Amino acid sequence: MIRAIIIDDDMNTLEGLSRAVPWDQFDVEICGLAVNGAEGLQLIEQIKPQLILTDIFMPVMDGIEMLKCIRAAKNDAEVIILSGYEDFKYAQSAVKLNVADYLSKPATVTEIQEVIRIVTDRIRIKLQDETEDKELRELVEFHRPQTKKLLMKGLLETDFCNTPFYEKSFKHLQMNFKNQSYSVALIEYAVPRDRLNVKRSDVSIYTFALRNMIEEMSEQHKEVFLADIQQNVIALIVSMPQHLREETAKQRVKYIVTEYVENIKNYLRLEVWVAVGNVVHRVHDIASSYKVAMNLLARREFVGDIWFINEENADFKPQKLEVRHLVENYHELIRSVMEGEVDHVKQQIGQLTNTLSGHNPLSVHLIRSTVIELIGMLMISLYDQGIFVEDIDSKMNLYTDIEGIHHIDDFSAYLLEVLIPINEALANRGTHKHRKTVDFMKRYVLEHYAEDVTLDVIADKVFLTRNYLSQIFKQVTGENYNNYITRVRMEKAKELMLLKKYKLYEITEMVGYKNNAYFSQQFKKHTGKNPSEFC
Question: Which residue has the higher pLDDT, 290 or 377?
Fold first, then answer.
């Protein structure tokens, strides 16, 4: 209920207002009475009412002075002044103090009730907005880590900076990349051959350790951002002041990356190679630096034992497509697994199989290596969500039966056998994780179904992409978002029709449609009847 207090030095007014007004009808509870402004201030501090009814002229402290005090304290309660004095200068003071209404005594109960109705309606709207804002802030904070991951990874993609998600995310995360230059460094690592007791599949474990090491080091190097992590390769974005000369900027990148490499070698005893892209001067060009680094890394085996590769020491002879370029297929497949899209997982396995089949020559070793690399990346993605394979199935071992893969059909069958159970398990987990977000989406539709309630509108409020919202809504509810909106609107239309108070074109507008014919088409599709046949 709305909390209210009444302040007046006239006891008849206090008792009359308390009894004559049907406060319950306005969902208002009278929580206290005061006979002057000083007592009123104490009550306001204790009760924190949303509505204050007060006289102006009172002993000890008058109503205007009291209001000045509460406004100075940033109290935004709605105030109704009920005074026997019709002095214009006091009305002016009331306006400056953001008073909702100013009534002159004697006022009829009807007049008072009408003002109270208007003001309490405004309070309810304000409280609803405050609740929605709080929920939005909680949702945004809940998704902050996900937003940052999407943002940093997105900077490696061409044209990402032209998307609305880019602008919203930087504003939300309060990241300032102005007057900076950037370079992308790719760190590739491997277990040395002389460590025969370490299996290749154990590289996933090293990747987890490496992520922790890099995140810890990046706490000291605020200019270094972890953009992406795959099995065997980590992408870092290094930022520098834009005023640095080109050669100085390159030396700074090498100095920073060398510190990372030395720690990896000393603590994890891994072999490490680094490819560094060109220095760029806009966030929009980070993707081009990443592309240069990727091309350099793909040629690493042709530059001997050099561990640090940049454009100055690389061999630019064109080379054949390397298997690492299958990473785009890997990313799409793993995304589908993580988001519980069973049909899409099967489709992506088919596409990956076709892509690999086109590689010439295709060896058993190459097929098995592809499986190991893909499974390693999946384990990293699971780890990002705080999930271990054993959490899904205690008996599951992703690396069993790899030695039984002898041709491309074995490859496809193996992936289906391993990935589909994980996919289904994650779909069930996602339902609980995203319930809060979906509840907000449903509530927003119920409150705004007569307006434009597209996914883009809601995405703007929670700082998530339209596609991501669509996926989690379907994942949690099993229903397409657009179907849900239509269902809500049709149910509201049925309620309005049963009232028999409105014409069809009025109902059409009231439930968010601009075209009668389209509304009638949707109504029949939903109910099996034309609007004219419903009642």
Answer: 290
Tell me the pTM. Answer: 0.56
Q: What are phi and psi of 380, to 5 degrees?
A: -65, -45
- Long-range contacts formed by 58-62: CB under 8 A, 24+ apart: 58/7, 58/8, 58/9, 59/9, 59/35, 60/36, 61/36, 61/37, 62/37
Report the run of H or E that residue 211 belongs to, with start and end.
Answer: helix 203-220
Alpha-carbon distance of 384 to 125, in angstroms, equals 40
Q: Are 264 and 272 in contact (CB under 8 A)?
A: yes
Q: How far apart are CA 258 and CA 250, in angstroms?
A: 12
Give the per-residue pLDDT at 155.
92
- Put the strands of the sheet holding 233-241 in their side by side order: 224-230, 233-241, 180-190, 271-276, 308-309
One-letter amino acid for residue 425 of the chain: A
How far is the C-alpha of 205 from the C-alpha of 211, rounded, in Å?
A: 10
At residue 16, what is the residue type?
A: G
Residue 320 confidence (pLDDT):
45
Residue 325 binned pLDDT confidence (cut-offs 50, 70, 90)? low
User: CA 77 to CA 49: how far, in whole Å?
Assistant: 7
Q: Answer whether 229's CB lies under 8 Å from 222's CB.
A: no
| Residue 441 and residue 460 in contact, taking contact as beta carbons nearer than 8 Å | no
Quick one: tokens of 403? 């030695």
Q: Contact at 8 Å (CB) between 277 and 255?
A: no
pLDDT digits (tens, 9 = 90+) for 42-101: 999 999 999 999 988 889 998 889 999 998 998 989 999 887 755 545 655 666 677 877
